[in-house]
Specification:
By secondary structure, the chain is α+β, with helices and mostly antiparallel strands. The protein is built from 2 helices and 9 strands, in the order H-E-E-E-E-H-E-E-E-E-E. The protein folds into 2 domains: 32 residues; 99 residues, no CATH class. The longest helix is centred in the first third of the chain and has 30 residues.
Length: 138
């Protein structure tokens, strides 16, 4: 009876564990396929934060995208998607002008038209940064 339990345990690990391990490796490898290339950085007036405009490329099966993240000034841009704004296209072609209105407000000088994949209106938990959109605003 003990032999059958051992055989069933080994068989269960092979049937369930092996496919889960392969799936985990695939997900890990796919996440490393993406890369970010910084296009420009705009530092807030108090120099505590910066808005980073970058191009994200996730391999041959996807197009380029322009993305914007707000991060603390001393931080490096991580290899992840933008945290406030994402749109198709390369930054040299579609990057909107950015302007820090104050230490707590970033203005993206482009009206939203529905082509955006992400367009957040704020960033941060404490000392939030308000994000506003619109062409020609002050």
């Amino acid at each position: 009876m003990k032999v059958w339990k051992k055989v069933a345990t080994v068989f269960g690990v092979l049937i369930v564990g092996f496919p889960l391990a392969i799936a985990g490796l695939f997900i890990y490898a796919a996440s490393d396929m993406c890369g970010n290339e910084i296009y420009t950085e705009i530092v807030s007036p108090n120099k505590e934060r910066k808005a980073v405009v970058f191009q994200r490329d996730c391999g041959a099966t996807t197009g380029f995208s322009t993305q914007i993240s707000i991060i603390n000034s001393g931080d490096r841009l991580e290899n992840e998607g933008g945290n406030i704004y994402i749109i198709d296209g390369q930054p040299k072609d579609v990057s909107p002008p950015l302007k820090w209105v104050s230490n707590t407000e970033l203005r993206i000088e482009r009206s939203l038209n529905g082509s955006e994949y992400k367009a957040e209106s704020s960033w941060g938990l404490l000392n939030k940064v308000k994000v506003t959109y619109g062409a020609g605003g002050s």
